[in-house]
Amino acid sequence: MAEAIRMPLLSDTMKEGVIAEWHKKVGDTVKSDDVIAEVETDKATMEVMPYVDGTLLYIGVEKGKGVPVNGIMAIIGKPGEDFQGILDAEKGGAKADAPKEEAPKQEQPKEEAPKQEAPKQAAPAQPQQAAPAQPAAQTDDRLKASPLAKKVAQEKGIDIQAVKGSGDGGRIIKRDVESYTPSAAPQPQKATMQMVQAMPAGQEGHTDTPISQMRRIIAQRLGESKFSAPHFYLRMTMAMDKAIEARKAINEVSPVKVSFNDLVIKACAMALRQHPAVNSSWMGDFIRQNHHIHIGTAVAVDEGLIVPVIKFADQKSLSQIAQEAGSLIDKARTKKIQPQEFTGNTFTISNLGMMDIDEFTAIINPPDSCILAVGKITPTPVVENGQVVVRNLMKVTLSCDHRSVDGSVGAKFLQTLKTFIENPVTMMV
Asked: How many whole angstroms separate alpha carbon 344 and alpha carbon 11?
């Protein structure tokens, strides 16, 4: 019997998923553990498997289009099996949506018309240098390559058409791009320079980039946070000299490299244990004080931000935190992170110190009540006992939701955090 493959709920905030790539086409034989599609959510691009064997009979939406959670992505069954009853039942269950589904079908020819006219408009420009760019882009769209491979190729300035794929059916994957060593790598850069030089002086222009699911949710959730949660900010400067010495000693014996951010995660976790009010969430009719401590760390990816979560951070050693944080950050950047690894945070850290930022303020990441913004470590002259000495200082800013955390509560938390950061030995006893 034919079975519908529905859009899974891949994150707690997901409302729909956008098909980033189909790896199977109608008529292909599919196994339960085959990856049939890559789906872009508000958090990451994830692979979807059907968990049933059969033949792909129907694809519900083309690449680049969205499917609501629990909506039909595809149908799998026996070759030639009638699946119309599944689609009719789906439409019958949402009669109010039926007219909306018919309208786009009637408008499709209108949407395609501009695409057909584009080559005609570009035809006079074919003798010019810029003309080959259009066929190249069209060829790239037909390539068997994962979205991540295309992005990596674009970032590295590699012509993906010259890369040999090692995936199924010659599909190009990230590993193929990273291991590719072109003999004329500068060519894409030269082409770019030629295009820039060919631009007439004084000509205005712009580029419109479609909003990804991740960026859309970032805008929605952080916009709601900023304008619904009354933010206030507490700033503190911490001396990092002992932390620098402690980190050096720790890394001499640690099985993994411990970063300053790992030290901050551990210190925050221990400070939250002493100040549970900061480890809370505003729930509208009540304040939820979490007994567990799950610390999220903001990580920048191409589409925006994702927050991998170190769960039970107060119960883990520095080397355990370093190992887990490194693994999660790598998964986030390669889009292999799973929903359970970026949900459930009770407190968040955003660190831009490695990007040479002195200090900044961060918007609270719901459902947390607070987020800590961490700046860089800077050698700074200070006065001690009437003498000027140089100390390595780090500035932090705690953004607090005044509905659940008061100023004195946040200040006491920072005082405890400072004690741990300035003397890391206290975190080990």
From this structure: 11
Candidates 206, 291, 294, 402; catalytic one: 402
The DSSP letter of residue 164 is P
Is the pTM for the entire model greater than 0.85? no
Determine whether 402 is an active site residue: yes
Tokens of 286: 């009540």
**pLDDT digit string (tens) for 287-300?**
999 999 999 999 98
CATH of 3-93, one of 2.40.50.180, 3.40.1010.20, 3.30.1490.190, 2.40.50.100: 2.40.50.100
213-428 is a CATH 3.30.559.10 domain: yes
Report the Cα 41 to chain-centroid distance in Å: 9
Cβ atoms of 346 and 292 within 8 Å: the answer is yes
Q: How is residue 397 written in tokens?
A: 């800013």
Domain layout of the chain by residue ranges: 3-93, 100-189, 213-428
Give me the residues paired with residue 379 across strands: 392
Burial class (CB in 10 A: 0-12, 13-18, 19+), 425: exposed
CATH number of 100-189: 4.10.320.10
Residues 291/275, Cβ–Cβ less than 8 Å: no
Q: What is the pLDDT of residues 145-168, one digit of tens each?
A: 777 777 777 777 787 877 887 776
> Cα separation of 354 and 321, whole Å?
18
- Please tell me whether the peptide bond between 367 and the residue prior to it is cis, using omega within 30 degrees of 0: yes
Looking at the chain, the number of H-run helices and the number of E-run strands are 11, 18
